Automatic annotation (TrEMBL):
Alphabetized PROSITE patterns for the sequence: ABC_TRANSPORTER_1, ABC_TRANSPORTER_2
Name of the protein: UvrABC system protein A
GO BP, sorted A to Z: DNA repair
Pfam family, one: ABC_tran
Compartments reported by the entry: Cytoplasm
Coiled coil segments of this chain: none
Lineage, broadest ranks: Bacteria, Bacillati, Bacillota, Bacilli, Bacillales
Domain ABC transporter: 3-439, 447-744
Gene3D superfamilies reported for this sequence: ABC transporter ATPase domain-like, ABC transporter ATPase like domain, P-loop containing nucleotide triphosphate hydrolases
Length: 754
């Protein structure tokens, strides 16, 4: 008995968020999956208790000098967490990064290639630094290692039909009357009434490009000490320099007049000519960077030089791990800033596999996101590998195909928010399938393929699409029904549906899980618009001004500006949020809180859940908005919960709620099942059905078989990823897909046949 305690992480009395004094043991060196409806408290336990406590204890071991510079983790509300090892969280936060961060650099594969080329490349050009585009020795001198340059689209920037007086420069601060326009008019170099199309070559060159001289005959508005600078160098200086504030503030205007094109010198290779001329079997390091993982493996396997054997083997092992996690379609030169959250997470996973540390605790947040059932199968092997290296693996997951590989399962619930926060089942997969919990029930009665599908009301047409990996794709998508777009990760689903389709049908409404663009003070009440009504009610009841109850007026707590929290920006680290001491999180001045509506202060109302508020209010407008929130399954959220604290799935459903009363729209949903428990998926299906019933067209990109099985139409892409994908394999009714003998999607979908 004692020994088994030794061999587990022991949490006693956890009370974060909605957790109700939960105690549990997580077996070490095994895989434990946490599951349960969204809002049940999985993150509160796994991230806010276990991961936070590990980080806090680790920080304690540093000197106070270092500690002050580390991200601060509040003391989790828990009696004790024993037997913890260092926890590494592998989440879906995008890696981001600047243009110098690529898949190759972040996985260290680029360093291995550099080493390889410096050993056996012909001709030999130097040490491995010579092959680094982030090092002055290696970078292309023209683009400084970025592989691309900004070129002006002169015809967009300048209207040649106009004279200087008529304002020919289409750029902020260069319009008639504005400072920079005045400069050109005052030089005395130009006839200000002459159309630009009539300029001599000399005049045109001066206007656009010349610099560094004093105009000989300026008007008296010309500042006497100033040197002349043509339009292009002028814009470059202020708006294109890398870190200037203006380059961020005027980004949209810049995008209108500047195009990114491949560098004419290195053609995107990023390196100088000497480094590019160094080759192995006729292939340069830049050629390698342009290959997909699977192609690069083939190239490396063809190298026979024994001097390179170790490097080649290390590199191939790394690359095969990328294949296993389903991102074999990525090229080494792909910038990390363009990777999706799921791709970012899988890269982080591979980075961890490369480490030789053992006895760590790895924490994964829904690793199945973005993965076809086929990819999930492969990724499971990596998770098992991590465990077998002697690590403890904790996974928050809804996908039954991941849950079943767990050695131990903790099911949280029974429901969300206040109705959750306890453990409802603990044990193995077999037991879970028979358990009397929501998860158990859903596993016993998973959706069946629909026997009767809805008939299309019309068609949306895409012709000859060839963005990214798409191979001249033409496809018709039915309107008035639910279409599921399927295929392995990287096959081209998002490219077709999120990028090409809105280009052809700009009216499509994209409902994703991205942050809702709003101020830090936005919450459910302000987003749904009911806060204005609530303030009015308070004002009428108490005969005061409604603005008293606004977050940005004098009634709000001045310390936190009505947010109830103080956020400390720690520059490059996660910022630190703490409850405002002045108002203790109540957001308003004491004298505002004395005003009541039906016995509650404005702060009390913001603390109500949407469910509670439905009992509290009687006003039809407010009730309708609250009802929509309840209908998307978010009745457990409080009115004052900041939108920034919602999970991705919650954000998406808040956006869906806002659409519930619209009709006839085209909706695009990218993996709406993310973050959703099987029972939440049923609810999502009923929302989608309602949108379809209101003449809506719903297109989902999905991997979740419970949702795909409910579609009226399926578009399957593939067959592989990246260059091996980009084709439509099937477009038709689900029952027909099942007949297709080679489709991987059909293979997994067959288990849903009625
Ligand atoms: P899960 O991970 O199971 O989806 P969480 O642990 O994230 O659930 O959330 C548990 C409960 O705590 C939910 O009801 C959620 O709305 C609530 N909650 C989460 N973050 C906050 C917050 N910052 N303020 C108030 N309640 C929160
Ligand atoms: P899916 O949605 O099926 O996972 P994607 O449409 O995201 O697939 O990707 C299809 C192909 O297009 C992949 O090879 C991917 O690497 C490439 N791709 C996607 N986005 C970009 C981008 N911003 N820049 C370059 N290539 C991209
Ligand atoms: Zn270049
Ligand atoms: Zn305050």
């Amino acid at each position: 008995m004692n020994q088994s305690i030794e061999q587990s992480i022991k949490v006693t009395g956890a009370r974060n968020k909605n957790l109700r004094n939960v105690s549990l043991a997580i077996p070490k060196k095994q895989i434990t999956v946490f599951t349960g409806v969204s809002g049940s408290g999985k993150s509160a336990m796994v991230f806010d208790t276990i991961a936070a406590e590990s980080q806090r204890q680790l920080n304690e071991t540093y000197s106070s000098f270092i500690r002050h510079r580390l991200p601060h983790y509040g003391q989790p509300e828990v009696d004790s967490v024993e037997n913890l090892s260092v926890a590494i969280v592998v989440n879906q936060k995008r890696i981001g990064g600047n243009a110098r961060s690529t898949v190759g650099t972040i996985t260290d594969i680029h360093s291995l290639l550099r080493l390889l080329f410096s050993r056996i490349g012909r001709p030999f050009v130097g040490y491995s630094d010579v092959f680094s585009f982030n090092n002055p020795q290696g970078m292309c001198p023209h683009c400084e290692g970025l592989g691309k340059v900004n070129t002006f689209r002169i015809e967009s920037l300048i209207d040649k039909e106009k004279s200087l007086n008529e304002g020919p420069i289409r750029f902020p601060t260069f319009h008639p009357g504005e400072v920079r326009w005045k400069r050109y008019v005052a030089t005395g170099l130009f006839d200000n009434d002459k159309k630009l199309k009539d300029y001599s070559e000399e005049e045109w060159d001066t206007l656009l490009y010349k610099t560094g001289f004093k105009p000989p005959n300026p008007t008296k508005e010309w500042p006497p000490t100033s040197y002349y600078e043509g339009i292009i160098p002028r814009i470059e200086r202020t708006f294109l320099s890398k870190d200037s504030r203006d380059s961020r503030a005027y980004r949209e205007a810049i995008e209108q007049v500047v195009a990114e094109t491949a560098c004419p010198l290195c053609h995107g290779g990023r390196l100088n000519q000497e480094a590019l001329s160094c080759k192995i079997n006729g292939t340069s390091i830049a050629d390698c960077a342009r290959m997909q993982v699977n192609e690069l493996i083939v190239f490396l396997e063809s190298i026979e030089d024994p001097a390179a054997a170790t490097i080649v083997d290390t590199c191939i092992t790394r690359l095969k791990q990328l294949l296993l996690v389903g991102i074999g379609y990525l090229t080494m030169d792909r910038e990390t800033a363009t990777l999706s959250g799921g791709e970012s997470q899988r890269i982080k996973m591979v980075r961890q596999l490369g480490s030789s540390l053992t006895d760590l605790t790895y924490i994964f947040d829904e690793p199945s996101i973005g993965l076809h059932p086929q990819d999930v199968h492969n990724m499971n092997r990596l998770l098992l590998q991590l465990r077998d290296k002697g690590n403890t693996v904790i996974i928050v997951e809804h996908d039954p195909d991941v849950i079943r590989i767990a050695d131990h399962i903790i099911d949280m619930g029974p429901r969300a928010g206040l109705a959750g926060g306890t453990i409802v089942y603990e044990g193995n997969w077999d037991g879970l399938r028979h358990a009397d919990t929501l998860t158990g029930k859903c596993l016993r009665q998973r959706a069946r393929l629909k026997s009767e599908v809805r008939e299309p009301t019309g068609w949306l047409h895409i012709r000859d699409a060839s963005l990214h990996n798409l191979k001249q794709v033409s496809v018709s998508i039915p309107t008035g029904v639910l279409t599921a777009v399927t295929g392995v990760a990287g096959s081209g689903k998002s490219t077709l549906i999120n990028q090409v389709l809105p280009g052809v049908y700009p009216e499509a409404v994209i409902i994703n899980q991205d942050m809702i663009q709003a101020s830090s003070r936005s919450n459910l009440a302000t987003f749904t618009g009911i806060f204005d009504d609530i303030r009015k009610l308070f004002a009428e009841e108490n005969r005061v001004s409604p603005s008293l109850f606004s977050f940005n007026a004098k009634g709000a707590c001045p310390e936190c500006n009505g947010s109830g929290t103080i956020t400390m920006d720690l520059a490059f680290m996660d910022s630190l949020v703490s409850v405002c001491e002045a108002c203790q999180g109540r957001r308003f001045h004491d004298d505002v809180l004395q005003y009541h509506l039906r016995g509650s202060s404005i702060s009390d109302v913001l603390a109500m859940t949407a469910d509670e508020a439905l009992d509290f209010f009687t006003e039809p407008g407010i009730l309708a908005a609250l009802l929509r929130i309840q209908q998307v399954g978010l009745g457990y959220l409080t009115l004052g919960q900041p939108l920034s604290t919602l999970s991705g799935g919650e954000r998406q459903r808040v956006k869906l709620a806002a659409e519930l009363d619209h009709s006839g729209e085209i909706y695009v949903l990218d993996e709406p099942s993310t973050g959703l428990h099987l029972s939440d998926c049923e609810r999502l299906m009923s929302i989608i059905d309602r949108l379809v019933a209101q003449d809506g067209t719903v297109i989902v990109i999905e991997h979740n078989l419970d949702i795909i099985s409910q579609a009226d139409w399926i578009i399957d892409m593939g067959p592989g990823a990246g260059q091996d994908g980009g084709n439509i394999l099937f477009s038709g009714k689900p029952a027909e897909l099942l007949e297709s003998p080679h489709s991987v999607t059909a293979k997994y979908l067959r288990q849903f046949r009625t």
